[in-house]
Amino acid sequence: MKEKRLIRLPVLAMGARYRWDKVRNQHQLVFPEGMIVLNETSTAIVRLCDGRSADDLIATLKDTYPGSEPADDVHEFLRDLADRGVLRDKAVD
Amino acid sequence: MTKPLTRPLALLAEVTYRCPLQCPYCSNPIELAQYRRELDTATWVRVFGEAADLGVVQLHLSGGEPLVRRDILELVRGASRAGLYTNMSTGATVADDAKLERLREAGLDHLQVSLLDSRPDSNDWLAGAASFDRKRDAVLGAKRLGFPVTLNVVLHRHNLDRIEEVIALAQDWQVDRLELAHTQYTGWAFRNRAALMPTRQQLDHAHAVVERVRAAGTDGLNIQHVLPDYYFEQFPKACLQGWGTVFMGVAPDGFVLPCQTAREIPGLEFPNVADHSLEEIWFNAPVFKRFRGTEWMPEPCRSCDRREIDFGGCRCQAFLMTGDPAATDPVCHLSPDHHLVDEALQEAQQSDPPLHFRVMSR
Fold first, then answer.
1. What are the chain A neighbours of B7 within 8 Å (beta carbons)?
2. Class assignment of domain A10-84?
3. Which phi and psi angles does B248 have, rounded to 5°?
4. What are the average pLDDT values for consecutive 10-residue runs of chain B, which has 362 residues?
5. Are the Cβ atoms of B176 and A15 closer than 8 angstroms?
6. How far off is chain A from B58, nearest CA to CA, in Å?
7. For chain A, domain boundaries
8. B258 vs B248: CA distance, rounded Å
9. ipTM of this predicted structure
10. To the nearest whole angstrom, how far is the Cα of B53 from the nearest Cα of chain A?
């Protein structure tokens, strides 16, 4: 089991990028040999992985979606992306 | 009339079968000399546009060696402008820093470089050409330019014992991904099967090494280890996630294939991009419908709970081993032909035949 670490400075791994699929009307995260279909929330998270801290990212989401408490979901999603090799934690590189 | 529910996600564009290397497990056809004609630049670029309109996300520029095409930069530019995520699989022996930089500018997203072994002498022997130093220089150059780089090492009897060295090399060269891909026995690899098949002991050792390295932490290196189905699998692999489901390939001469090695199956008629759009071919060509879905399946697949998990396995493997492309993949323990897998393993353990290197002779 991987321990539940927190990712502090999430940046997309080299080669991973957001893409709008005009044929399927779908948000996607594409990367070498793979693709993840994103929903509205995960799209918002991915587009905020621009060098800001995870804390900043969560604060921005809270502003965008008032009344939400996204912290746990964000950290879980970021960990999932990191486990799949498409996200890095710049704080530990 | 069954309507296909999916559109393709990946297009493999084999832009040429020409290659300076002679890897004995090449997935290109054995009868290479029959397929010398190559599509021109404008046709490829049109095909990339059709692919994007059809829903293709990932383009794999491959070969042969795609970098021997003089118009490779135009092809990359065309693919990138069409909005495709553009990968290139290359032997990298003709990739100097200047060329890599131009590829980056043209919009290439990801570079996959083949390596045949961790040691230069063995790499060069397997490739049939001095190539290790050039591959290393290309990988290091690509990393300096900011490419995501995958190192792809096809594993078999002659290099499997050095898997730990291979991993160490990938870490040393700071590649992003390492694909440890056990040989799939189609194309040239099927011809060389008895010479390439590793022993059970070799496989157990390799598996243990990968598990140990993963447990210790790979320091950012993403390791993909695809186990060989002859040995390890009770069930066949879900080849291409099913025929005509997510994948299509275009051969150098413009013929459109549901699988890159499908030309090995006699009796199939392949459409050509000169005559039809990719969309027409995907939805209407008989060869794409031939093994799509589950209707074509024989028993034991037809009534099997796993028929939509592994789709009966690999059609090319079924044909090469049984002579019937519609048979259940013999790798499946439920296949009436499963004894062929055991016999192939036995044959490989008891013999050490020479390798037939890939050549384009007539």
1. 23-24
2. mainly alpha
3. -145, 150
4. 74 97 94 91 98 97 97 98 97 96 97 98 97 98 95 97 97 96 92 93 94 88 85 84 95 96 93 98 96 94 94 94 95 94 89 88 54
5. yes
6. 8
7. 10-84
8. 5
9. 0.87
10. 7
